[in-house]
């Protein structure tokens, strides 16, 4: 029974890592489509959302089965409950990839923008945070999780700077308004990806802290 | 043990209903502050967010305890897993209340807008959806849950109409740009509240469908 449980837990982790890869890929592809002004690529991100939604439901069902059949407690229980949250967070990151891709499709109907302003920098930070959060989960590494938390203020500041810059452009040229709104939308969605990476990192810290708590309790017991 | 479990489950439901009330209140107060141009009221919403965050953690901890100590299966297990999701959705609705209140504070620094366009209509629909989703959860009523799902397209359409109207205003008057961005932000946040109400309704349908499945299995058994 114990070995079976370990296997199921490994299977759950593997599926979450797969989900994380698809979510990362969705963001990367949407931003690549933005740089290369590639509507086919952007549409591919929009169409790919069904896959991540299906995997989310599969993982949720696996979680129900795991809890019902194995009735884990303590650290394992917290890990599985955190897995449900992380699953949901990753699905939402996929949604943000779709939102970005939709904005790219909107931008491609307009004249090319001179500059993407803070978007390349924000993309690098958001992707780095997501990668670190997923690595922190894979290796159950709270130290790495904490670095993600520290990165979040930086991206919030970039998002605010971005809005100020776009508003300035809009005020000097009303033809920049439609495209400017799409750039703000992309910026906001990247900022939300960073928030969700932060959520995942917090869950990793929560799981590993529970380990520490359990450890101390065992020592006392 | 059984009676104790029922009590804990009732306690969990009661806390979620309390969380729902606070989330509803946050949206209602933020929109009231918008209409009455009341910065003190808007600030109250921003400051009130700590309360909903604390309650979210309390509920999450109660869920861990309930699963660890009672090890429920089938319908009860699905109800508790759905409760974790609903808890998170309600916390996010509180965040949207804060976002709206922040936009109100932004708007109050500018000249009053002539019209709030689709915002009053969107508020009515979003609040109605949230109320119905919470009622569906309280009474475990999938029929009411389905009415929430049907309302979601309407608010998406209002949000799109809103953006078109604001962009038109921005293009004719560059002084409308700053306020217009805040109105779009409020509109988008109301649309997200409606999405989250839809999530809650879907969870209620999921729980009650599991009941049906269990019922059939028992009949066969």
Short key terms for the protein model shown above:
elongated, 221 residues, mainly alpha, Methane Monooxygenase Hydroxylase, Chain G, domain 1, 88% helix, homodimer
Low-confidence stretches of chain A: 212-221
Form type of chain A = elongated
**Share of helix of chain A, binned:** over 70%
Tell me the distance between the termini of chain A.
Answer: 25 Å
CATH architecture verdict of chain A: Up-down Bundle
- What is the number of helices of chain A? 7
Radius of gyration of chain A: 20 Å
What is the mean pLDDT of chain A?
92
Number of strands of chain A: 0
- Helix-strand pattern of chain A: HHHHHHH
CATH top level class name of chain A: Mainly Alpha
Largest sheet of chain A: none
Query: Largest chain interface and its two residue counts?
Result: A-B, 23 and 23 residues
Judged by helices, strands and strand pairing, the structural class of chain A is mainly alpha
Number of domains of chain A: 1
As a percent range, the share of strand residues of chain A is under 5%
* Named CATH topology of chain A: Methane Monooxygenase Hydroxylase, Chain G, domain 1
Q: Tell me the CATH superfamily of chain A.
A: Phosphate transport system protein phou homolog 2, domain 2
């Amino acid at each position: 029974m114990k070995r079976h449980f370990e296997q199921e837990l490994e299977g759950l982790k593997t599926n979450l890592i797969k989900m994380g890869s698809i979510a990362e890929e969705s963001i990367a592809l949407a931003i690549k489509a933005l740089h290369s002004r590639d509507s086919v690529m952007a549409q591919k991100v929009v169409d790919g959302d069904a896959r991540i939604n299906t995997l989310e439901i599969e993982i949720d069902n696996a979680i129900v089965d795991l809890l019902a059949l194995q009735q884990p407690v303590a650290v394992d229980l917290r890990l599985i409950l955190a897995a449900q949250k992380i699953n949901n967070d990753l699905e939402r990151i996929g949604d943000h990839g779709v939102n970005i891709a939709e904005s790219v499709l909107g931008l491609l109907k307009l004249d090319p923008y001179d500059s993407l302003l803070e978007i390349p920098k924000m993309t690098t930070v958001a992707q780095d945070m997501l990668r670190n959060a997923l690595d922190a989960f894979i290796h159950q590494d709270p130290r790495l999780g904490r670095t993600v938390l520290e990165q979040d203020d930086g991206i919030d500041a970039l998002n605010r700077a971005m809005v100020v810059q776009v508003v300035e452009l809009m005020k000097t040229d009303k033809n920049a308004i439609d495209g400017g709104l799409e750039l703000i939308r992309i910026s906001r969605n990247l900022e939300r990806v960073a928030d969700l990476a932060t959520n995942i990192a917090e869950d990793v810290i929560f799981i590993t802290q529970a380990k520490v708590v359990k450890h101390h309790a065992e020592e006392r017991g």
